[in-house]
Amino acid sequence: MAAEYTQLKPSWSERLAERAPILLDGAFGTELERRGVACGLPLWSTHALLEAPDVALAIHRDYAAAGAEVLTAGSFRTQRRCLERAGLADRARALTADAVRLARRGAQAAGADCWIAGSAPPLEDCYRPERAPADADAEREHAEHCEHLALAGADLIAVESHNNAREAVAAARAAAATKLPFWVSFICGADARLLSGEPLADAVARVADVGAALVGVNCLPPSAVPASLAVLAQAEVDFSVYANLGEPRGDGRSEDRTPVAFAREAVDWWRAGARMLGGCCGTQPSHVRAVRDLLARS
């Protein structure tokens, strides 16, 4: 049974029709680490569901208080494949439900009626497209994960951080099968190509055909956004951008941005046509609040 709650906000299609910018939250995993929760592999942010749910709830609450309309549940690594490596495969559905419930409770704690998006990332490493599973495995495993998100009561599904079109299409089809609205977001380089080398334009067209409500890019540094923005602005689909301030790979690469500086760039993305804005790895509630405040003055 899906979780029950009172929905005061408009439907997602109605919200998109309003044309005003939609504010997404920021990083979850790196924010957990910043607050003292170790997020080692393979479980990554799932550690918080097991060991520090109070911290997870507080992060969601803080993003909602900062003005985020959409909170992303901490289901980034609650797929059976990942959990199996930690001997927790039988808890895939329960942990996914925990992730959605904590995000919902965080919104409620802030007195906000946010959309809760269930994260549906690549089944393997977001930065290693060569590790993508075979088509049959991708279709089966994404179908299970998306079904778990729907059963948990997610409002939306975020097919995010994908590095190749083939797996993204499998995840998008799984999301579409739930009948929930969903978006698809790719990691790209400064050349507007996916990490697999595929042109972003081609990948956008493929997932748009599956029915994505939004298509965009995420977990790329702000300096790499302009090339992708030029491609997305030409696509016949609403699009989103949520950049990072450093990949969580321990290689030391980052692009520092104060909240105000990040907000200025985010507003530029909006002016270029982005419908949904937010942050990825390294961003904090202060970045989301700064985007909200600058949008209000723009």
Architecture overview:
The protein is α/β, with parallel strands linked by helices. The chain has a single domain, classed as Homocysteine-binding-like domain (TIM Barrel, Alpha-Beta Barrel). The chain is built from twelve helices and eight strands. Strands 1-8-7-6-5-4-3-2 form an eight-stranded parallel beta sheet. Helix 4 (53-65) crosses helix 6, helix 6 packs across helix 7 (135-151) and helix 11 crosses helix 12. The radius of gyration is 17 Å and the shape is globular.
Give a brief outline of the structure.
The protein has 298 residues and is α/β, with parallel strands linked by helices.
* Helicity range: 40-55%
CA gyration radius, whole angstroms: 17 Å
Question: Sheet with the most strands?
Answer: 8 strands, parallel
How many strand units?
8
H-E order: HEHHHEHHEHEHEHEHEHEH
Overall domain count: 1
Distance between the termini: 42 Å
CATH H level, superfamily name: Homocysteine-binding-like domain
Number of helices: 12
Instruction: Kindly report the CATH topology.
Output: TIM Barrel
Detail the topology: elements first, then pairings:
Layout: H1 12-17, E1 22-23, H2 29-34, H3 46-51, H4 53-65, E2 70-72, H5 80-84, H6 92-109, E3 115-119, H7 135-151, E4 156-162, H8 165-177, E5 182-186, H9 200-208, E6 214-218, H10 225-234, E7 239-243, H11 259-271, E8 276-279, H12 285-297
Parallel strand pairs: 1-8, 2-3, 3-4, 4-5, 5-6, 6-7, 7-8
Helix pairs in contact: 4-6, 4-12, 6-7, 7-8, 8-9, 11-12
Task: Record keyword descriptors for this entry.
single chain, 298 residues, alpha/beta, TIM Barrel, eight-stranded parallel β-sheet, 12 helices, globular, disordered N terminus
